Amino acid sequence: LPASAIRLDRENIAAIGELRRLAEIHSLYLQWNQIEKIENLDSFPNLRFLCLAGNRIQRVQNLQALPHLSVLDLSHNQIRVLNTEELPHRLQILDLTGNECTRQEGYRDQVVAALPHLLQLDSQPIPGNAAEEEEGGHSPSSEEEEEEDEELLPELRVPFTVDRDFLVDLRRELAGRARRRRSSALEEHRERLEELRERRALLL
C-alpha cells in the first residue's frame, strides 16, 4: 500500500488503542475485526478514507477530530440509532448498510440534510448534491481544500464500498481537480482494493 495508507483488516483487533500522531496517513482499513467503539482516531488528523465495516460498533462517535474525512464505511455493524451530529461535516461517501439505524423513520433525509457535501449514501447517489450545484463555476473556499480533494480522488478509484459507475460520475463532477501521483504505488493500492471488494462480495 502507499505510505499514506494502513491496512489492518481481519486481524482480530478488539479496540483502537492510543497511538502516536500519524499526520501522513490518509486511508485506514480496519474492516472485519472485533472493534466495539470508535475511539483514538485523533492520531490521524488528516484521515480521508476510513473503513470500519463488519465490526461490533454500536454508536457513531469520536469522529469530529477528523475534519478532512470524506469516505466513511460503517456497514454491517450494530448501530441502532444514528446521531447525525457525530458525522464529519465534509463526508462525501457514507455507507451504513446492514445497520438497524437505516430503518429509522426519515433516516435518509436526516443524513442528507446533515451532510451538505454528500455524494453517495449506502451505495445510492444523492441527487442535487452540493458538488453538482457548484460544478459549473464554483470557487473553493481555499487553495488548501482544493489540493486535499485532488489528493483524495486517486484513493477513491475502486474502494470496495463504491460501484465503478458512480466513481466515473464522481470523477466527472470533480473534473479538473484530480491528478495522478505515485502511479506505481497507487496501482498496487487499486489491486488490493479490488481484492477486498471481491472478498466482501463473497462473504455477503
Concise account of the structure shown:
28% of the residues lie in helices and 9% in strands.
Structural class: alpha/beta
**Looking at the structure, what is the overall shape?**
globular
Sheet with most strands: 7 strands, mixed
- CATH architectural name of the domain at 5-128: Alpha-Beta Horseshoe
The CATH superfamily title of the domain at 5-128 = Ribonuclease Inhibitor
Order of helices and strands: EEEEEHEEHHHH
Please give the order of strands in the largest beta sheet. Answer: 1-2-3-4-5-6-7
The number of distinct β-strands equals 7
Helix fraction by DSSP (H/I, runs of at least 4)? 25-40%
Strand residue content: 5-15%
Report how far the terminal alpha carbons are from each other: 25 Å
| Name of the top-level CATH class of the domain at 5-128 | Alpha Beta
Uncertain stretches = 131-167, 176-181
- Topology-level CATH name of the domain at 5-128: Leucine-rich repeat, LRR (right-handed beta-alpha superhelix)
Number of H/I helices:
5
Our Rg estimate from Cα atoms comes to 16 Å
Mean pLDDT: 78
What structural keywords apply?
single chain, about 200 residues, alpha/beta, Leucine-rich repeat, LRR (right-handed beta-alpha superhelix)
